Amino acid sequence: MTANAWLQLFVYLAVLLAFVPLLGGYMARVYEGERTVLGRVLGPIERLFYRLAGVKPDDEMGWKRYAWAMLLFNIAGAFVVYALQRLQHLLPLNPQHMAAVTPDSSFNTAVSFATNTNWQGYGGESTMSYLTQMVGLCTQNFVSAATGMAVLVALIRAFQRKSRQTLGNFWVDLTRTTLFILLPLSFMWALLLISQGVVQTFGAYETATLLNPLKDDKGQDILTQLLAVGPAASQIAIKQLGTNGGGFFNVNSAHPFENPTTFSNFLELLAILLIPAALCDTFGRMVKDRRQGLVILAAMTAIFVAVTATCMMNEHSPNPGLAGLSIDQSVGNMEGKEVRFGPTGSALWAIATTVASNGSVNSMHDSFTPLGGLWPMWMIQLGEVVYGGVGSGLYGMLIFAIVAVFIAGLMVGRTPEYLGKKIEPYEMKMASLVILIVPALVLVGTAVACLVEPGYKAVANPGTHGYSEMLYAFSSAANNNGSAFAGLSANAPFWNTALGICMLIGRYWLAIPVLAMAGSLVKKQHVPTSPGTLPTHTPLFVVLLIGVVLLVGALTYVPALALGPVAEHLAFSVTP
Amino acid sequence: MLDLAYLLITAVLIVLPMGCVALYERIARD
User: Fold this and answer.
1) Cβ atoms within 10 Å of A511's Cβ, excluding its own
2) 3 state SS of A216
C-alpha cells in the first residue's frame, strides 16, 4: 500500500470523524424534540404536515402500533413505486417515451427502493421516466432511510426510558428525520454536486456531435451520440446520504455525469458514511453517556480501517488473470476501474459502500482481484453493521453489542445487562433471529440459484467466479446493500423475484424483532451499576464487540467464501 | 394477474413477521 493510499484513507476518516459530533448532536436534538437551528423555518411546515395528516405528535405508540405504522407505510410506498413503473408510459415527465416496466422488474425495483436496498436490475437512463425516478425512486430514497432511522430511535428510547410502554410516534420520527435531517443535507449536497458538474435538468437527452466519428458493424458512419441527462444531482445527494445507492445512470458513480471530479468523488464518499457514523454519537447523547456511542464508533472504525487497507493492498497488486498479456500493471489492478480513481479511490469506495449498505459504485467490483473482491462481499455479509445503513446499521450493531454482553456474561458469570437493562431470554431470542435470518437467506438462496437452470444460466463466467457473482447477489439483496458484482444477467424473472423476496425478508423480518426487543426493554427498570456489571464503555468492550462481529461473520460465511473468491485466488496461484 | 401476485407477495412478506411475533408471544404466554 502506497503513502498516497494511506493519506487518502487518513484524510477521509479525519473529515468524516470531524463531522460526527456536529451532526450527531444535531440529530439528538431533533429526536429529543429540542430547539434546532432549522426549527424556525421547518417547524411550521412540520406542524402543517401533522394537521393535514391528522397526526397527534404527543400520541405515543407501543412497539406493535409503531411497527404496524412502519409496515403499512412501507407497503403503501412499495405499491406506489410499482404502479408508477407499470404506468409510466401513460404518465407525464417521460420525454424519452419509456415503455412500461415488466412486472418482475417493477416488483424488484419497488421492493428494492422501499427496503433501502436499491439493487438495480435495470439501467436507469434506458428504463425509467423522469417521473418514476423522482416521485417513485427519489422519494423512496428519503422515506426508506427515514424508516431505518425511526426504528433505531425507537430502540434507543427503549434503553433510555424506564418502566414505560411506549417508544415514541412513528409518524413524528419519520417526519422529523426527513424534514430536519435528510432534506437539508440533501439540498446542500445537491448544490455542491451541481457546482462540480453533476447534471440536473428536466430537458430531453442531448445529441452531441462526435469529434472522432466511428463506424457501425455495417460500415455506416456514426456522427452523433445521444447523451442521457436528467434530474440526477438531487437523486445522487440522497442516494449517498440515505445509504440507498441506486444510481441515476446504469454505471452509477463511475458515470462522469454522476461523479465528474475528484471533489465530487470525495463529497459522495463522505456522504455515504456521514449519517451512519454520526448516529453513534446521537445514540451516546440520547442514552446520556457519550462513551457508549464512541465505543460503537471505535469498533466500526477499527474494522473499516483494517479491511480498507487490506483491500487497497490487494488492488495495488497486479491482476493475476492479466499476467503475460503485455499489460502494464505497475499501478495495480486497473481492470474495471476509472483511471481518475485508480486502485486506491476504487478500493476505498468499494469498502465504504459495502460496509454502509449503500451499494453505489465507482468501479466494477466484479473486476477486482479475487481477494480484493472478497472484502466488499464479506463486509456486506457481516450484516451491514460496520457503520451500516442509516439507522439499520446501528440497530444491527446494538444487537451485536447485546450478544457480546451476553457472551461475556456467560464467560465470567456476570449478569448480562446493557445500558442498565437486563438482557433476558426474550431479548436473546429476538437477537438470534436478527443474526440468523439473513445468513439463511443468503446461503439457501445461493444454493438454490446454483441448482436451478434460470439461476446458473444467468452467469456469464461459469466456475468459481460465477459462483462468487451469485453469492454476492444474494448477500447484497438480503443485507439490503444493493451493489452488484456484475457479470450476472439478473434482470430476469427468477432473479428479480428471488432477490426481491430476499430484500423484503432481510429488511422487515429484522426490523420487527428489533422493535419487539425494544418493546420488551422499554418496560424494564434500570438496574443500578454493581461490581457484577460488565462495563460497556471501555477499550476491552471494543475488542469484544469486534470479536463477536467478526467471529459470527467468519463462522457463517467462510465455507461459502472458500468456494468462491478463495478458490479463485488459489487457482490463480497454481495456474497463473 | 402477475401484477396482483407480485403486490400480494410484497404485502404478505412485509406483514408476516408481525404475525409470527404475535403468535410466538401467544404461545409463550400460554
Assistant:
1) 28
2) coil
DSSP character for A205?
P
Q: Nearest CA to A332 among A371, A369, A378?
A: A369
Q: Where are the beta strands (DSSP E) in A179-324?
A: 206-215, 221-227
pLDDT in tens, A48-84: 999 999 999 999 999 999 999 999 999 999 999 999 9
Is the CB of A501 less than 8 angstroms away from the CB of B13? yes
The closest of A1, A108, A30, A40 to A344, measured between CA atoms, is: A1
Give A79's contacts in chain B (Cβ within 8 Å).
7, 10
- For residue A341, the SS3 value is coil
User: Cβ A82–B6 below 8 Å, yes or no?
Assistant: yes
Distance between CA A181 and CA A25 in Å, rounded? 12
Q: How far apart are CA A347 and CA A379, in angstroms?
A: 13
Assembly ipTM: 0.94
How close A426 comes to chain B (CA, Å)? 10
The angle at the Cα of B16, spanning B11 to B19, to the nearest 5 degrees, equals 135
pLDDT tens for each residue of A201-250: 988 889 999 999 899 888 899 999 999 998 899 989 999 999 998 888 88
What residues in A contact B14, CB-CB < 8 Å?
71, 74-75, 78, 504, 508
- Candidate from B14, B18, B20 with C-beta closest to A504: B14
Which uninterrupted H or E stretch holds A131? helix A130-131
- A67 chain-B contacts, CB cut-off 8 A: 18
Backbone torsions φ then ψ of A128, nearest 5 degrees: -100, 140
pTM score, two decimals? 0.94
Of A68, A107, A426, which is closest to B10 when you measure between CB atoms? A107
Round to whole Å and give the CA distance between A54 and A57: 9
| Contact (Cβ atoms closer than 8 angstroms) between residue B9 and residue A107 | yes
Please answer yes or no on whether A71 and B18 come within 8 Å at the CB atom. Answer: yes
Sign of the C-alpha dihedral computed for residues A414, A415, A417 and A421 taken in this order:
negative
Among A68, A106, A505, beta carbon nearest to B13: A505
For A369-387, b/e burial (b = at least 16 CB within 10 A) is bbbbbbbbbbbbbbbbbbb
Residue of B nearest to A496 (CA): B6
Angle at A496 between CA A490 and CA A501, to 5 degrees: 135
User: From CA A87, how far away is CA A77, in angstroms rounded?
Assistant: 16
pLDDT in tens, B12-28: 999 999 988 888 888 77
Residue type, A513: P
Q: Does residue A162 contact residue A525 with C-beta atoms inside 8 Å?
A: yes
Could you please report the per-residue DSSP string of A230-268? Answer: SBHHHHHHHHHHTT----SSTTGGGSTTTS-SHHHHHHH
Give Cα separations from A144 to A27, A351, A489, A505 (angstroms).
Answer: 17, 22, 26, 15
